[in-house]
Amino acid sequence: MMIKPALVVMAAGMGSRYGGLKQLDPIGPNGEMMIDYSIYDALKAGFGKVIFVIKDEIEEIFRVKIGSRIERIIETAYVLQKIEDIPGIYTAPPERIKPWGTAHAVMSCRHMIDTPFAVINADDYYGPASFQVLFDFLKEVQDTDGIHQYCMAGFKLENTLTEHGHVARGICTVDSEGYLTDIHERTEIQKFGDIPKYTEDGEHWIELPAGCTVSMNAWGFTPSLFKELELGFPKFLEENRENIAKAEYYLPSVVNRLIKEGKAAVKVLPSKERWYGVTYKEDKPVVKQAISDLINKKVYKSTLWEIQYE
Predict the structure, then answer these.
(1) Contacts for 21-24 with beta carbons within 8 Å, 24 or more apart?
(2) What number is the average pLDDT over the span 160-183?
(3) pLDDT of residue 130
């Protein structure tokens, strides 16, 4: 029997730029949230379990608003991303108030998963095709010859931008065989007309090439990743002593390091899907209209689940 891959949904972020708990914002005609559409697409693709990574501050409302519904549809588990979850020789500094980042979020699941798994953000829309390519890769993946076999859904930069401000994206370099060779996090990318540019100092803007591949944190991994995350976390803490209150342990950075060290091969699975997200409050009407259009095209039913919303 085929072991169905799991889906890790990172939902611990509080949405500082958006101004609230955007993971719980309804965007569908009957109260559906972004997470509902991701779970629906994942379930349709063949995923067998979902693990939500959340903060303990939002656990109760998350379980009521989302968990009580999703639990009736697919096997569901919860992992609390805790600042205190660090190696024993270290102590979480009192000034640290936010989670340690996306790599730490995934590391928090290390005791919950023993199958291949995908990772996504809770507040991004990836589209059905993205989940299908991730599932198709993960259902047969095996690490070979000591090399971890991972994958990433790759999006065109132009399909991932907002009209209402800047975004952070992992700019990717892909070789002729479709494998990721480098990923560089650009934390401030913005559209100038139809031209995407990034800045590192807030003053000088550099144009990005049209059609370049970006990461939207839609990854596929084998359980071998957990050991790598645990091994790399102490080094991250040591390297960021001077900025320990704000530094983040980023998943793309870990993947990039593993590629450079020859420990992982990451297949880029092109997705032609249009990304939608609510980075800013002004994005919400755009996302709602996009979902309405997809319903009209019969991609989704107007009532996604035959279940009442709380």
Answers:
(1) 21/58, 21/61, 22/123, 22/278, 23/62, 23/66, 23/122, 23/123, 24/61, 24/62, 24/65, 24/66
(2) 92
(3) 97
